């Protein structure tokens, strides 16, 4: 079910974004998809902040060392204070092979 935000709620969303909240945190707070947050910001003419890289090259190398020793991508990401998707993206950019996820095989 889609959740529609009232104008006063969108005002709060915009205020929180301008004050520094991330798009993902706003999506969770207002219980909407991140694209909904982006859409509201765009409609209000709010310029979005540029993405800032969360890890240095050195941190990626250190994380890769832990990962190669067998730690899961999630545990390494947690240790470096980033999301597992962020770490996987950094690994791909650095040429570090990412192991397939464990769990049930997907039906094709």
Give an account of the 3D structure:
The protein is an all-alpha fold and 108 residues long. Among the domains are: 7-43; 57-94. It has 6 helices and no strands. The protein has helices at 7-18, 23-30, 34-43, 57-68, 73-80, 84-94. α2 crosses α3. The model has no long low-confidence stretch (mean pLDDT 90).
What characteristics describe this protein?
108 residues; mainly alpha
Give the topology, please.
Blueprint (H helix, E strand, L loop, with lengths): L6 H12 L4 H8 L3 H10 L13 H12 L4 H8 L3 H11 L14
Helix pairs in contact: 2-3, 4-5, 4-6, 5-6
| Count of discrete alpha- or pi-helical segments spanning 4 or more residues | 6
* Rg (CA only): 18 Å
Strand count, sense and closure of the main sheet?
none
- Look at the structure and give the mean pLDDT: 90
- Percentage of residues in strands: under 5%
What helical percentage do the residues reach? Answer: 55-70%
The secondary-structure class comes to mainly alpha
How far is the first residue's CA from the last residue's CA? 27 Å
Write the element-wise H/E pattern from the N-terminal end onward.
HHHHHH
The dominant shape is elongated
**Total beta-strand segments:** 0
Low-confidence stretches: none
Summarize the structure.
The chain has helices at 7-18, 23-30, 34-43, 57-68, 73-80, 84-94.
